[in-house]
């Protein structure tokens, strides 16, 4: 469960004559997210990624409070991050080891201290995600879709309670978008999915529409998408 209590984000930006001005990135928001699959949509720069990053403290709230899995993110950040998996738009920003097997094994280093057991577990994870034959393939030699699937595999290997996916299909072709969406559908964790893909949004149990730093619609997919389309039509 994710709870936001008047949680907002402001930043300081350069102003005239060397001054600093405060800019609101996300207006204070209060809501409780209990649904299994939640989508967040909005125009570029609307604040939707900022909202997603509040969940595990990648972006600290400057006002209010955020609790995830019953823990205050500000005071229990390390514990929260062990319970929340995060998948980025570009898998190259997330994959750090030379091969697929090594990358998944790195994710398991805390949960499985023994090296041999960790490698065996990593192989099982790769098999489960259809990447077993790519275990020793250099990460840079994988296709974009395989990289994103590997990034997901590494995150899900730790069995997080919450998965935040920040536009994970933006760089993918249609085939790989469907593969990634199917994986997200099957994740047992609560999923917070930031996306521009309105077809993917239809799978969500709840949808938040973010515009200019505010949540302007919150509800079922059909109603939220309609509100988003209306919003974009007048821009």
When the domains are counted, the total is 1
Which second-level CATH architecture applies?
3-Layer(aba) Sandwich
Strand percentage, roughly? 25-35%
**By CATH's scheme, which homologous superfamily applies?**
P-loop containing nucleotide triphosphate hydrolases
**Shape summary:** globular
Give the overall pLDDT as a whole number: 91
Q: Strand order of the main beta sheet, please?
A: 6-7-8-3-9-10
How can the largest sheet be summarized?
A: 6 strands, mixed
Low-confidence stretches: none
Classify the secondary structure makeup into a structural class.
Answer: alpha/beta
Number of helices: 8
CATH fold-level topology = Rossmann fold
Number of strands: 10
Portion of residues in helices?
25-40%
Query: How large is the radius of gyration?
Result: 19 Å
InterPro entries: AAA+_ATPase, ABC_transporter-like_ATP-bd, ABC_transporter-like_CS, ABC_transpr_CbiO/EcfA_su, ECF_ABC_transporter_ATP-bd, P-loop_NTPase
GO cellular component, one term: ATP-binding cassette (ABC) transporter complex
Protein name: ABC transporter ATPase
Keywords: ATP-binding, Nucleotide-binding, Transport
